[in-house]
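PROTOCOL LOG
Step 1. Enter all chains and additional molecules of the complex.
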Amino acid sequence: MSLRKLLWAFLAAGLVTTELSAQDSTKPVGKKITNPLGKDKAAIDAGRSQFNSGCAVCHGPTGQGGRGSRLAEVDRVRQMDDAKMFEIIKGGVSGTQMPPSSLTDEQIWQLVCFVRSLNAGAIDQDVPGDASIGDSLFFGSAKCSQCHMIRGRGGLTGPDLSDIGVTRSLDKLRRSLEDPDATIEPGFQPVSATTLDGRRVSGVAKNNSNYSIQIQDSQGKFHSLLKRDLKELVYHKNSLMPKVALSADDLQNLLAFLSRQSMETPEERAKRLEHGKEVEP
Amino acid sequence: MKKILCLIFLLVQAADAQVAFQDLLKPPAESWLSYSGDLTAQRHSLLKQINTTNVGSLVPQWVYHVKDSKRLQLTPLVVNGIMYISHTNEVYALEASTGRQLWHYRYTQAKRHDGNRGVAVLGDRVFFVSSDARLLALHAKTGALLWNREYGGHEQNSQVHATLAPLAINGKVLVGVSGGDCGIRGFVDAYDAETGKQLWRFYTAPGPGEPGFETWGSHPVEISGGGTWMTGTYDAGQNLVFWTVGNPGPDFYGESRPGDNLYSDSVVALDAETGKLKWHYQFTPHDTHDWDAQEFPVLIDTVFQGKPRKLLAQANRNGFFYVLDRTNGKVLLAKPFVKKMNWAREVLPNGRPDVIPGMDPTPAGKVACPGIKGASNWFSPSYNPETGLFYVITIEQCDVYTTSARPYKKGECYDGTGAEAIPAEPGQFFLRAIDIQTGNMRWEIPMVVKDTMEPWPGTVSTAGGLVFFGDNEGYLSAADARTGKVLWHFNTGQVISASPMTYSVNGKQYVALASGTDIFSFGLFEPMRPAPVTLKERYETRETKGEGP
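Step 2. Run joint prediction.
Step 3. Record the structure below.
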């Protein structure tokens, strides 16, 4: 019997069900179930096919969300363990429009592979370039650290980038540098508010509701404003971030540096190098 | 020139620091900067906008639902209008006047998912523990992780975990561990707040060659229990940390650990710089009833027995209310604060309890009082310096305690059996006000008789002459601090397992409480004002970049 068939025999024997039911949220978690297909490219392709035929109608063909929730490049999905993702696809989500699946366990694991690929971070890719030059650029001449912070060093106006290699794909990182206006991260929408007594508050909107807005200025100070106390609120369509003016080599060096940013220790990462092939240190 | 630049940098850093160490020592008013408001754990706020004359007009201002939570146990912190709350492996920053979220951090790699009781703040950092006993430092303005340090040894012993709010003092963050019922060796750790570097460790069970090691017989020190699962208090004048220690293990079977079992069920006074023990007081020597000493060690400076003293007051799980001299650990007063108590007659002049023989658990079961949950527990008491009264949620209950000699097995709990309620004699919650000068009860508020196991409600005292308290029915109530007359109540609709606090933003006082899955914040009623003009909102594209809108 091949290794894969042996594995499916185990799954069929209820191993998955047993382990899943044992994951009481108040108790320590034992050995986790992980995706037996890992990052297998054929499995990702098969998963994409499954996704397009049954999931894309709600979640969108590239997982950006629609009638269903967003699945691509989103922390909630990235941080979900394999067993939980399998459980959701198989059993659906009660009280929502997410139905149970009639797919085989192997097909479901293929879907897990595909959804994982939608959330792969740049750190999992071999990004060329000199990261040490990128480091110097970030904290030096490129002035990135005037607005962005990494491990406590830098400014507060832009998103913290300490974990950016894990949370952003390489493509998205490159797009952010080449076209900063393409996507403005939630919590970083530039705004200017004018109060009834003429005071002007500018910064990024950390939160915005129908009755109040919370603005963080360039010094990191929070401004709590009720909309009934405002006369004007201007949302700026473009990001505060300027387009990066670097040579092609330095852009690559900066990408190499950013793609390696992770708050995990090397030992912790070693455990997670291959989803589905967890290696104990 | 370089020196001048460094100086300027330091000045900028200092000016930017959110919370200075000195701020943590002040009685709470607008801000609430540590689990108990300040480092004395008096939990008494100077705010008095809400007072005995107007508390009847208190209404909810906002509710924040904490996603995926079940039984929130935290006390919120508020720093200059920003509220920090925690939940299992997560921290949120909220706008304290509206409950709107500013940022959220989640530690996704945690190996356990236990409750969490809150965060600590110092400088521009927020500190909290993960369930698998890691200490994490976040940037207070962004929620970004700055460092994440394993400290508890969860990889070596899966029963080690953490739920407490850390204690931040001068440049240091102190933490403890949970798991004392399950074969751990408790300790208190101190870490450098800037770098996360370990500064010292104090083990709650002495090792070979250390004083107190002989109080355990031949019982292995590695599985002695003595958890350190609640936040300590701090006396800046003596530079001493006071940390309470949990029960010895196995909880209900004492024959395998003959002796007092130091420093279980004690308060230890530790030098904040070195972690060295200055003194200790053991409330329950050789405990066999799981009476952890985790009730708050409240620090009070007042005239006591005719002279100014530095006191430490505690309403212990074993049923005695204690007043100690916190310069040396000597007992100045010890008096029962529950009627249902049958394990000791009194505390003797030498500080030891006069134990009634034959009250240890037996294989067939022995009725003893207080019950397993204790006469009080970790939920917060409070102390009002103006009334001299100590307000504490109290439980009158006896339980049946049963014992057996089960050997330790790694990864499993090490409790030596347990205790259960007596169906025909349900326990009862009270809010009691104890005069610290005499130990006498000045007044009490009885609560409806029901099963006592679910709720864990605490108190907060205010200069408005009020004591706010959670009850066993999901109500947050306010009583007159002098008379115990209930002046206001609100049904949160959920089981309360946390203690209230109070803060102020832009001159308006709020009272907040975590109840069930939500944070509730209350303030005095004000009619809603309509907007005087219609707000113009528009989108526009700017030409300039990088310098802000």
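Step 4. Note key features.
Strands of chain A lie at 149-150, 153-154, 189-195, 200-208, 212-216, 222-226, 230-236.
The first strand of chain A starts at residue 149 and ends at 150.
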